[in-house]
Specification:
Elements lengths: L4 H25 L1 H23 L4 H5 L4 H29 L2 H6 L11 H27 L6 H14 L7 H18 L3 H20 L11 H21 L19 H36 L3 H6 L1 H8 L5 H8 L4
Helix pairs in contact: 1-2, 2-6, 2-11, 4-8, 4-9, 4-10, 6-9, 7-8, 8-9, 11-14, 13-14
Length: 331
């Protein structure tokens, strides 16, 4: 099922601009909640509303679900991580200056946050981001292109560019191509969601299993070994996939009745407001500390020195004003 190209272009620009304008702000308020809220409200919610405004149900956006095709997609995502993500990131680390690599190191997101923050952030990266990003990029944007090969490549390029990470640009582009191929071949977004979740899950698992603070270069032996073994796995999966990748069509794709735009938007806005109030009820100090950090923008040395103070302020053992004062540069 395709969507009108002009409508997809306009709505995609609106979705991306909204996400880029407000998504980062939500994550600054609270990393874990912000990741879930930004993905659900903008990538996921606006994609569903886009389908509904075009006269189709949200089930049409996702396509049919099959546990078997979802599992095949996840296997492709895990194998592809070793076959292409590891070698391409090793190449990027060798080409880009070390300072730029460190600046775009996403592992910094896990610093100075509580266990609850980390749990929400990790679950958001493994669950919310794969579902909502694939719902938008492959379930909505890619379907606006009339020619599949061109649409897959262009969507993958937009997907990678929207992460604003030049170091990971090539690796994410390759991932976008894989996700696009899985969605196209299966006729459903779900195998791409499985591949995306597997890629993010393997990345997160290896980060926590390894030494998070170890910046030692990988060298080339490990990436080359991953490239060889991973591509053998991809070849085997390609031969096995066949009909196992094909997802069933949704049982009901009847057009939805016309409604006002507010009727489509209001449930998502209500959910966003309710989740934010719940966040404030359980972790208002965490939100306040994040606002203080955003205003002060402490450097790496100050962030390290005040890590213990921040934890004490988060636990209520230290007034927020004392932590704010500690971030101020000496006169």
């Amino acid at each position: 099922m395709t969507l009108p190209g002009r409508f997809v272009a306009v709505w995609s620009i609106f979705t991306l601009c909204t996400y880029l304008s407000f998504g980062s702000g939500l994550q600054l308020l609270h990393l874990g909640w912000g990741l879930w809220a930004a993905q659900a409200l903008f990538h996921g919610g606006l994609s569903v509303v886009g389908w509904q405004l075009s006269g189709h149900s949200a089930r049409a956006a996702l396509g049919g679900f099959s546990a078997r095709s979802f599992g095949v997609g996840a296997a492709f995502g895990a194998a592809n991580y070793f076959a292409w993500a590891v070698p391409l990131m090793a190449l990027a680390h060798a080409v880009f200056p070390a300072r730029l690599v460190q600046f775009f190191d996403s592992a910094k997101l896990f610093e100075r946050h509580s266990q609850v923050d980390l749990a929400l952030a990790v679950s958001g990266a493994v669950l919310a981001a794969p579902l909502c990003e694939e719902l938008f990029f492959r379930g909505f944007l890619q379907r606006g292109f009339r020619e599949a090969p061109r649409g897959i490549v262009l969507t993958a390029l937009i997907f990678s560019a929207c992460h604003f990470d030049p170091v990971g640009l090539l690796a994410r582009f390759e991932l976008g191509v894989l996700f696009g191929l899985l969605a196209w071949k299966s006729g459903s977004v779900w195998p791409a969601v499985g591949a995306h979740a597997a890629n993010n899950g393997v990345t997160t698992l290896l980060y926590f299993l390894g030494d998070a603070g170890d910046d030692t270069p990988l060298g080339w032996k490990l990436p080359l070994l991953c490239f060889a073994a991973g591509n053998l796995a991809l070849l085997a999966l390609t031969r096995f996939a066949g009909e196992h990748l094909r997802s069933p069509s949704p049982s009901t794709l009847t057009p939805v009745p016309p409604r006002t735009p507010w009727a489509w938007f209001s449930p998502w806005l209500a959910w966003g407001l309710a989740s934010f109030l719940l966040l404030l009820a359980f972790d208002w100090r965490g939100v306040a500390l994040n606002v203080i950090d955003a205003r002060a923008q402490p450097g790496e040395a100050v962030r390290t020195q005040t890590r213990t103070l921040r934890a004490r302020a988060r636990a209520g053992e230290l007034p927020l004003s004392d932590y704010r004062q500690a971030l101020r540069p000496p006169n």
